[in-house]
Each structure stands twice: as structure tokens, then as C-alpha cells.
Design a protein that fits this description.
3 domains
Length: 623
Amino acid sequence: MKLDLSYGGVVRMATLAVGVAMSVYHMWAIAFGQPEAIIFRGTHLLFALVLTFLIYKRSGEADGRPPTLYDWALLVLGAAPILYLFFNYEYVVTRIYYIDDLTVADMVFGTILALVVLEGTRRVIGAALPITAIVFLVYGLFFARLEPMRLLDQLFMTTEGIFGIPLSVSAAYVLIFVLFGSAMERTGTGQLFMDFSMALTGHTAGGPGKVAVVSSSLFGTISGSAVANVMVDGPISIPLMKRSGFPPHFAAGVEATASTGGQIMPPIMGAAAFVMAEFLAVSYLQVVVWALIPALLYYVACFAAVHFEAKSRGLVGLPRAELPRLGPVLRERGHLFLPVLCILFVMYSGYSAPLAALIGTLACFPVAALRGSTRSNVTVANIVDALFDGARNALAVALACACAGIVIGVVTLSGLGIVFTQFVVGLSQDTLIMELILTMIAGIVLGMGMPTTPAYIVMTALLVPAIIKLGVIAPAAHMFAFYFAVLSAITPPVALAVYAAAGLAKSDLWKSGWAAVKIGAAGFIVPFMFVYEPALLMIGDWPTIGWRFACAVVGILLFAGGLHGYFLTRASMWQRGLLVAGGLSLVYPGIWTDIAGAMLAVIVILAQLFERSRVMQPAKSGH
């Protein structure tokens, strides 16, 4: 291959080298122990800023053009404050925060870093989060009357601002899991998930839609991004759904909804799950346990929506002759599941989640080399590309976490969290359901303009304390906020997963968005379920957990059947009303609501069995 020594070529090589170095540094830190907080988080942010200004242009596009002089200037300005902290490390860790005055250099470099982080975040994920951070800064300076010097101290010289817990989570957890996803994708795992799903469900009613649900839930466990999920699965699943008879907007809605759930699907969830573990001071494994039943209920809702919609439209699955067979799929590519099993084994053996992800990542290419069907993916170029992709794909989370650190810094220093909690509790008039609805709306609105992780972080600072104050246990309150920060990806008018899916399906954005909401509607009630019944977070005794899970599954099936107009057969309007009411009754914990839900379900089932037998009777007599 000819060496490209043009300006663009040299910059591309330098960018590749920085990305690979970023991934290797984090792997080294996990294997041999992380440096002290400021050094580790600072190095993570330094790599992220350098890569951002090398890759993303002023317009926010990553179009492959080399950086301009302006980009280089921002790169230098972003690196300088972090290097200043490194070179003055002894001074930084020995001074007394908020007591010792900042030097002129401290103030200048602190201001520069805050501005560069805002600009870098705007380039990578858009303007919503930087604008939110600016609003909080304005509040802190002009309404809460914080001293500028003290605010800069908080944001720049401590681990309570830009270098706070969100950035720590990005550095310690997110990058290595994103890198694992890149390595899995480079070894052909995406195709395995698609073939596996098609072999399992492709022949059933609405099979291609169910393929999208299963494959997206599998791929979501290694990508953590709804949009990335759509872009991997959508090009295959959406044309299949359209071919089988689903309208384009419904196909887009199915793919968007299924892809969005990947962030709440254990064993490897979205980045915000790691932040939750840090906030609650529990292991990531504990968060996985809490998330398992809600994630299963979400996908039961998606699967049921696809099934009932397909039945109501009279759609059938794909011919078995056109589908991959499960046996050959597992024989040829099944070994690619091994890295995921490695992660689970290491985590359940009591080791940390980052170490488990590192071992899983290191296992990807050797495992791919085991069989001839995937050995062609094991090349030096592919390994280098996986390392670079891991770093590049982690930029959005790294910059979002640094920018969210500005918000957290202002909230902590000004006491805004307490004020806002009192305001929300007052607004909801001490009524839990009102408080939950307000939090749901806030999560969806915040998530419209920013990724899940910063949306969840802001909700944790402002809204979660209010829910806890009304008697909800902390795990349920945090999971509620996390869930709706995730679901904002499919709620119009700004629904990033729907935008991606609608583009692939060539469908109307609004119709696709409302289809996604309808498909995920049963999933929207899941967070309310586990707030009122913590057994769904596997908190409590096993008989209660089993009973509530069974009631929740039946409730979601009834609710989805009512929304899509089909259960055992096509449902009339009164039957749809009873199905929805029965589903909601079973969702709310309590002996009387369970009895009411069961009775409504029995009425509809008996009516539909009677109708079906009446339809079949003439057919038999005619035969």
C-alpha cells in the first residue's frame, strides 16, 4: 500500500494513531491499575478532545476533511489546561479547595477548558447539552450569586465538576465496553445475531418484525446506542419487514423501538447503567440484576406488538426455504458468542466489570480465528480499525460526561438540587403518580436533545431526589429515570432512533414516530410497575417476584392486544377497551386489581373463543 504523505494523509495517520493509543491506554489502565483520579480522567478527556477536533469539523460533521487552523487552535487550547494540571499536580492535590484563592493561570485555564468542552460537545452530539450547561452556568452566576472564582474552583480544580463521576464512568467503564462492541462487530458478530434471530423467528407471523426485535436486543447488549443499533440491523430487517407486508412507517417504528431497548438489556447495558452503579455505590452486577425483569418486560411488549399487528393485518412469516437454519448458523458462527460468555463468567466470578470487558475484548479475535468461517476477519488492519472505532465511538459519551460535569458542578455548589426537589414535590402536591408523570415528561424532554447518559445524570441531580422523598426506594427511582432517558429516543418530535430508521425505511417521520410510541407503549408502563412493586427489580422474596413478573407479562400482553386490536382473534372496540383496562389492572400490584384484571381478561378470551368457534362452524359444515 502506497504511503500518503500529503497533509490529509498525514493527519489521517495521526488521527488513527491517537485513537489506537486512546484504546490501548485504557486497556493498560484496566490491566495494571488506574492512575490517580485527576490523571486518569484528565488523560481520558485529553484523548477525547484531541480526537474530536481532528475528526469533527465546525459544522459538527465528520466528513474526512483534514482539520483547519481553527480546529488546530481549539485542539491546543483544549489540551493546554489538562497538561497544566498534570505539570502542577502537587500544587493541585495539596491546595485546599474553596479556601486557597485561584491563581490567574488557574482561572484562565479553567475558563478555557469549560469553553472548549462546550464546543467539543456541540460538535459531537449537537447543541442541546451545551446550551443546557450554559443555562446552568448563568443560573449559578446571576441567580444563585455564586462567586466566579469558587465556581471555577469547583469545575476545574476538583473532581466535583468537569472531572467528576460522569467522566470517571466514561473513562473506567464506557470506553472498554464500546471497544468490546467494536471488536465484536469487526469479527462478524452482527451477522451472527441477525442469522440467529431469523432462524428462530423468521417463519412466524410477522417474522421479520420479530427478527428485528430479537437481533436488536442482542446487538444492543454490545453497542449501547439506539442509533448504532438501527444502522446495523435496519438495512437488513426493514426491507424484510416491508416485503412481508408491514407498512414502511411501522417497519421503521419496530426497528427504532427494538434498537432503543438495547440500552436497558443486560448483560451489557448502556453507559448510563455504569453511572447509576457509581451514584448508588453498588456493583454494576447489582444494576444488571435490577434491570433484568424490566428489560424482559420491555421486549415482551415489543414482541407482542409486532405479533398482534401482524395477526390483525393477516401477515405471515418468511418461507423457511429462504431462512438460515439454526444448526448451521451455530456451527459456523456460534463460537462468536464466547466473548460475551467470557464477560459474564468473569463478572459472576466477582471481578470488576471493566476487567471482564477487557478479557472479552481480548478474546474476540482469537475466538474468531477458531473457525474458517470467521478467520478471514482476523487481520492486523481489522484489529487496528477495531481499536480506532472503539475510541471514536466513545467520544460522544466522553464529551457528554465532561459537559454534564459542568451541570453537576453548578447543581452541587448552588444547592439547586434541593430547591428543585422542593419545587417538584410542591407541584405534584405530594402525590407520587403526579411526581412520576412529571419525571417521565422531564426525561423525555431532556432526552430529545441529548444522549441517554447526560439526560439521566441531569434527572438524577434534579428529579430523582423528589421521587425518593415521596417514599420510593433509591434503585426504583434511579431505574425510573434511566428508563425514560432511554425511551426518549423514540418519542416525537425529536426521536433520534426513529430518524435513523425512517431514513432507511423511506417513511414519514411523524408516522414512524407515532408507530414507535404505539409499539413501545406497553413498555412505557413498565417503569411505573417497578416503582409500585420493587419485586420487579428482584427486590424481595422469590414467590412475590415470580407472581408479580407473571402478572406483569400477562398485563403487558393484554395491553398490547388492546392497542393493536387483536388477541386470540380480531378484537372489537369494547374488547379492546377491556383488554387495555385489564392490562393496566394487572400492572398495578394488589389482590383486587389482579382479580379485576383476570376477570376482564377472561371475559374477552371467552368472547373471542365463542366468536372463533362461530366462524369455524359454518366452515366445517360447508366442508
